[in-house]
Amino acid sequence: MKIVALSGSKVGSKTRTAIDYVVQEINKKENDIEVTLLDLADYDIIFSDGRNYLDYEGDTAFVTRELMSADAIIIGTPIFQASIPGTLKNIFDLLPVDAFRDKITSMVLTAGSSKHYLIGEYNLKPILAYMKAQIVPSYVFIEEKDFLRGQITEDDVLFRLERLVEDTILLTKTYTTMRLEQESHYDF
């Protein structure tokens, strides 16, 4: 199983802190999971111009191909101006419409206040559904007050991150088994 943990912004550190914790939890849970951390701050991604994702080069090609080859994607995003950052939206624009078909996706959102809690429901989930993702129903929302000196300080947040990792792994295994069983009924 391959899981990509995507930190979807070029600025800030809180989302990366949360995604780092997610990666640590994945590594603790199972040995047979290949986990890749993609922090958009580390890559020079060009703007989508409508080409097939296979036609891009450099960092853009690397990031899009990693996402396309994943069985599951855990998306971490800060909330800016009551929406996801443009860098994350650009990643979605670089990929085909059905890029997340047969992939489990889950979300970790960081924000300055509780007022942005529903951005995952009303902004990110519709994009993922449009791209044919199988979405883990619950997501983790982390507020500014849950961080101190670059660390998550709230035990409940850590527990919810652990649970998100468990749910993502379980749903990925279950969905893969069901899909393979269904495909075995075909003669081709």
From TrEMBL:
Give the highest taxon in the source lineage.
Bacteria
Which Gene3D superfamilies does this one have? Answer: 3.40.50.360
Q: Which Pfam families match?
A: FMN_red (PF03358)
The UniProt keyword set, sorted, is:
Flavoprotein, FMN, Oxidoreductase
Q: Which residues form the NADPH-dependent FMN reductase-like domain?
A: 1-144
Which InterPro entries does this entry report, sorted A to Z?
Answer: Flavoprotein-like_sf, FMN_Rdtase-like_dom, NAD(P)H-dep_FMN_reductase
GO MF assignments: oxidoreductase activity
Q: Which PANTHER family match?
A: FMN REDUCTASE (NADPH)
**Protein name, please?**
NAD(P)H-dependent oxidoreductase
